[in-house]
Design brief:
Shape: elongated
Radius of gyration: 42 Å
Strand content: 5-15%
Distance between the termini: 45 Å
CATH topology of the largest domain: Homing Intron 3 (I-Ppo) Encoded Endonuclease, Chain A
Number of helices: 8
Largest sheet: 3 strands, antiparallel
Order of helices and strands: HHHHHEEEHEEHHEEE
Helix content: 40-55%
CATH class of the largest domain: Alpha Beta
Number of domains: 4
Length: 292
């Protein structure tokens, strides 16, 4: 469906609003004028408020028999059916102690690849009999089998730089802060590769930031265009109201005023002024103006 066609929809906005108020559904109006939902909604909201729009939507849905909420006291179809199974399904159920074909038993060694593309060996130390599946790095497992538990903050590295060579002679335990020094000794080109990777990542971030700024500027431009259009519509409506008010005549207000003290009366004055006790009055006409 065409999401554009904005000019045609804007030209027929009054007709669309009239049909919408009369009970026409939003989907049928979209098909009729070949436009998307947001184009149609935007042009409808130029003539009615958002609260009116949602009120008409709710009314049109109720007229069409559309129910979107469960009624109070609604009972689900599977109420009281916990543990139910159809007759004859016993033959296809899992038997007690069944293990799937991909199950890995305790002591299985598997090779995994980390985010940097390096491969490491892992061994399964706990299986389904223990109630939990747990894998450990094979190099740490081998070290613990020979020298006991590894203290906290210590690392096990490979002397030749090959992470798959888990021979005990190739393993070395170091403190964490010694790792950069040992890595540079094993691989002298490590710093250059890291620098290249950081430069590539910075370029990627810069490209993403430029794209985000361009998108934000485009969105701001669209909002400015919509605001300018709304301002033009408001100005046209205001001019129409002022043109109509020019032909409205407002009668003048007539008052009686005391000539001596200026005390005024809305109705016919008494024989004597209550302020200065004199009896000389004058009729005054006050012109009214519209406050716009």
């Amino acid at each position: 469906m065409n999401r554009g066609n904005s000019k045609k929809v804007m030209a027929n906005a009054i007709t669309i609003v009239a049909q919408f108020k009369a009970g026409q559904a939003i989907t049928s109006l979209m098909k009729k004028f070949h436009c998307g939902y947001y184009v149609l909604k935007r042009d409808i909201l130029t003539h009615i408020s958002p609260s009116q729009y949602w009120r008409f939507c709710k009314r049109n849905m109720s007229r069409g028999g559309v129910e979107t909420r469960l009624k109070q006291g609604h009972a689900t179809w599977n109420k009281g059916m916990k543990g139910w199974s159809p007759q004859g399904s016993e033959a296809t159920r899992f038997k007690k102690g069944y293990l799937p074909a991909q199950h890995q038993h305790k002591g299985t060694i598997r090779i995994r690849t980390n985010s940097n593309g390096k491969q490491y060996s892992f061994i399964k130390v706990l299986g389904i009999i223990d109630g939990v599946h747990r894998w450990r790095l094979y190099a740490r497992y081998i070290w613990e089998q020979h020298y006991g538990p590894i203290p906290k903050g210590r690392l096990i590295i490979h002397k030749d730089g090959d992470p798959l060579n888990d021979s005990i002679d190739n393993l070395l335990m170091i403190i964490r802060n010694q790792l950069p020094i040992v890595q540079r000794q094993i691989d002298p080109l490590l710093e250059k590769r890291r620098l290249r990777a950081s430069i590539a990542a910075a370029k990627k971030r810069g490209k993403a930031n430029r794209k985000a700024r361009a998108k934000a500027a485009k969105q701001a431009g669209r909002q400015a265009v919509l605001a300018a259009r709304d301002a033009v519509i408001d100005a046209k409506e205001k001019r129409a109201v002022l043109t109509a008010l020019r032909h409205v005549t407002i009668p003048d207000i007539e008052r009686w005023e005391c000539i001596s003290c200026g005390f005024d009366f809305n109705k016919q004055p008494p024989d004597k002024c209550p302020k200065c006790s004199r009896s000389s009055f004058e009729k005054v006409k006050i012109k009214q103006r519209l406050a716009i």
